[in-house]
Design brief:
single chain; Glutaredoxin; Antioxidant, Horf6, Chain A, domain 2; 2 domains; five-stranded mixed sheet; 11 strands; 30% helix
Length: 225
């Protein structure tokens, strides 16, 4: 199964470095980021897990929970966490889900269903497709899917930028243009007729073409999400 935007994120129960997680219950009324790794003790992933620990306050401000997942056991994750703290300066302060039986990786379409055997017998290259970022909304729907190669570290600042857009556009009938960041102008959604737009934006909008209607970003503090 390949997950796409607006699919329901599969629920699962798994062990993690913070105990047993029932995924949908763990998300609750929050947003969530699930980011996956092909193997513990891999260099690029080590930097990513350390960065996410430092960035966690930014996700917290947006009401976003974060969880890592790697195709190894909880015991391996705990040893890896010590390496992450030593080399990156911060230990993971969020759960890392164990997936030694490949169950979650298969459920999320990151490994083929026929994969079997022991996680310890597989290399990171064997699991190289387990390099996804899933952003999931409070409705448990998939809002974003990113897939990275093992050789390229992920840009989690971009994930935060997209979450800002997702949360804004979930609340208001707007879209965000290329490279948009908080506080910049937005575009009235195409689903809004001009008559509706006049009621919502009585001061009008800038329209370089009839299908492009630009307005200031509606006010929204991160505490509202």
């Amino acid at each position: 199964m390949t997950l796409t935007i607006n699919d329901t994120a599969p629920d699962f129960t798994a062990e993690s470095t913070e105990g047993t997680i029932s995924f949908h219950d763990w998300i609750g009324d929050s947003w969530a980021v699930l980011f996956s790794h092909p193997k513990d003790f891999t260099p690029v992933c080590t930097t990513e897990l350390g960065y996410m620990a430092k960035a966690k306050p930014e996700f917290d401000r947006r009401n976003v929970k974060i969880a890592g997942l790697s195709v190894d056991s909880t015991g391996d994750h705990e040893g890896w966490a010590r390496d992450i703290e030593e080399t990156q300066g911060t230990a993971p302060n969020y759960p890392i889900i164990a997936d030694a039986d490949f169950a979650v990786s298969k459920l999320y379409g990151m490994l083929p269903a026929e994969i079997g055997g022991e996680a310890a017998d597989r290399t990171a290259t064997d699991n190289q497709t387990v390099r996804n970022v899933f952003v999931i909304g409070p409705d448990k729907k998939v809002k974003l899917v990113l897939v990275y190669p093992m050789t390229t570290g992920r840009n989690f600042d971009e994930v935060l930028r997209v979450i800002d857009s997702l949360q804004l556009t979930a609340k208001y009938r707007v879209s965000t243009p290329v490279n948009w960041r908080q506080g910049e102008d937005v575009i009235i959604a195409g689903s809004v007729s001009n008559d509706e737009a006049k009621e919502i934006w009585p001061d009008g909008w800038e329209s370089p073409k009839p299908y492009i209607r630009i307005v200031p970003q509606p006010d929204m503090t991160l505490a509202e999400v």
